[in-house]
Specification:
- The protein is an all-alpha fold and about 220 residues long.
- The protein has two domains: about 100 residues, Helix-hairpin-Helix base-excision DNA repair enzymes (C-terminal) (Endonuclease Iii, domain 2, Orthogonal Bundle), CATH 1.10.1670; about 100 residues, Endonuclease III, domain 1 (Orthogonal Bundle).
- The protein is built from eleven helices and no strands.
- Helix 4 packs antiparallel against helix 5.
- It is elongated, with a radius of gyration of 19 Å.
- The chain starts with 7 loop residues before the first helix and ends with a helix.
- The C terminus is likely disordered.
């Protein structure tokens, strides 16, 4: 059965409900300043926010700047983040990006997406998160949660997260208020994390089920 794509009014209603349910969504990564959020987002690749937070809570009490990170050193950082997947390569990248922040950006996290993506270990997704969380840019970083939710809700029909950011951003930007676009990234992530899960999505508890073409309730109505 072919999915019925939601129309303009349905998409706007979905985001009205997102906003009603959670007016000011925020990242669940814990950080103390711009630099520590950048480090946390780099660490979060192929890892859970909970796992990253457990490792960074003691780390960020001692290390909260590029200079402090270089003083800790790569081996010290590896010990601090050894519970996180890919910790060897992540530690190497964090040391390198810390050096570049000092050498090219006076130790500050740049507010330019291209400059962010030029840093070691920072790809499109990480840069989009930083621009959204720190600099109030209406970017949408497409992780597995956003990819899944956007496709289940019928916003896009894409085959991978990498192919989702451009069409999803373009579509939502044409329909949503600027304030809603600013929060769209987190609404979609949190919805995928807690309700629209990969396995056994909680359709019976979902406040979007009557609008979702993929929900069990929507399927029941069509039968």
């Amino acid at each position: 059965m072919q999915m019925t794509m939601p129309g303009r009014s349905e998409i706007q209603e979905i985001f009205r409900r997102f906003e009603l349910h959670n007016p000011a969504p925020k990242t669940e990564l814990r950080y103390v300043n711009h630099y520590t959020l950048l480090v946390a987002v780099v660490l979060s690749a192929q890892a859970t926010d909970i796992g990253v937070n457990k490792a960074t809570e003691p780390l960020f009490k001692e290390v909260n700047s590029p200079h402090a990170m270089l003083k800790l050193g790569e081996e010290g950082l590896k010990k601090a983040i050894k519970t996180i997947g890919l910790f060897n390569s992540k530690a190497r990248n964090i040391i390198l990006l810390s050096k570049q922040l000092i050498e090219r950006h006076h130790g500050e996290v740049p507010s330019n997406r291209a400059a962010l993506e030029a840093l070691p270990g920072v790809g499109k997704k990480t840069a989009a998160v930083i621009m959204n969380c720190l600099f109030d840019e209406p970017t949408i970083a497409v992780d597995t949660h956003v990819f899944r939710v956007a496709n289940r809700l019928g916003f896009v029909q894409t085959s991978s997260p990498d192919k989702t950011e451009e069409p999803l951003t373009k579509k939502l930007a044409a329909l949503l208020q600027k304030s809603q676009m600013l929060h769209a990234h987190h609404w979609l992530i949190l919805h995928g994390r807690y309700l629209c899960t990969a396995r056994n999505p909680k359709c019976s508890m979902c406040y979007l089920s009557d609008l979702c073409p993929s929900s069990s309730k929507a399927d029941a109505k069509r039968d």
